[in-house]
Amino acid sequence: LFIAVHADYATTSARGATIYSLREKVANSLKRSAKGDVSEHLLSEGELSAVEKASGSKEMSAVKDILADFAGREVETTRERTNIFSRSVIEHMGETTSLREKPDQQAAFRVLKTAQFPSVLIELAYVTNKEDAKLLKSDAWRGKVADSITTAVENYFSHQIARLPM
Hints:
This protein is α/β, with parallel strands linked by helices.
């Protein structure tokens, strides 16, 4: 998991936490890119050459297609796991702090685009909101929110382990 934690700034009276995951359009673009660039990223030149020598160019095309399919599935699996984790964060953080009206948001932040595993960016509160700013200074509040994020992580991994084939 990748978790970026921030405090937000707004010129309006915004208040509460927001959890961002990668915008679906960007994720789809990354999926297409992963499929297109698969042979350059998954196999070295020597490995590509060895496969081509052993099987010929016709089979090499099939190998690239299979690897491209795997790459696309990996991006899709990461997106699904991100959604699961994001919901867990919202559920557990909602027990310890106020969330924005629609806390589950999507964005194209660089930290979300570059991660190759489930990733969220958590905006804890707004430094421009007096109530939020007061909470950000509170050790007790930060501890409760940190504990809720820890619980979300533990929940995520316990569910992932439970899904492993036996």
